[in-house]
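Example 3.2
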Amino acid sequence: MSTAHIARALSAMDEPFVRYKIRLNVSTRPPSEREIRILRDEIRDSVLVRTLLAELDTAGRIPLPPSHRWRGAHWVLYMLADLGSASGDKSLWGLRDQVCEWLLDPDRPEPACGAIEGNALYYLLFLDIDAGCADALAQRLAGSLPKALGRSPAAFGQVLTALRGLTLHARLRTDRTSGDVAARLAEHLLAHRLYQKPDGQPLSADYASLHYPCYEHCDFLFALKVMVEAGYLADARCRAALDLLKSKQLDDGAFPAERKHYRVGRVGKGDDSLVDWGRPNRSRPNLHVTCDALGVLHAAGERF
């Protein structure tokens, strides 16, 4: 089955996040188009999103620490943004306030972190629910993260999520500082071809595998998604990651999830997810990975 055929088949599915991602990233419909806005509303009302929000209390908050993996307010908002849920949803204000109170608490001991500040900056802006927190998060990232660029998979994950948030902040707020820092972060990633050690080997087997969701465990497909958003996918140093992605395409045109970083249920030992995002299987397609991979390939100019 051709890539074009699988894209057409996905665009006709009932699941709204699939139609949204294919029409936005493969059919290249503008984000402001009425059909795209309607699809985002459908995502908000979907069973998938209702499941993610199942633990909301009467105040619109989740009675867990915001950073609780993966059911806390921070990670739920992260997933809503990655799925493409509706913009300006007032029902999320309780979660927003819960996250911002935590992040802006003067007694919070943790240093600025891409997986926290970067992701929060991204979802506050993408979901259009910011109430004054985003600028402070961007300033915090811009002032701290570029000073400690590492080369481990975890460090690359921090850079990627920070880059994603700062890119969106620079575009929506016309913020020059965010744009300059984002460019430095992108160059750091591109210098390592997004996922490689200096000797050309992958940073880790996990980083060179396909996942959904990535959460704070980033992989090369997430890196390619961020390069699309930041405008660097045409850089020749993305080619190795694009070739790796194409090598993982299944015969039917779809892509698998090869690993996962969550367990379904409320076990209480961390990494719990209320949603089953698709069990890893190298020979079976995963809808989430497939949508993201096809969007990247289309942005790279692959023929459909």
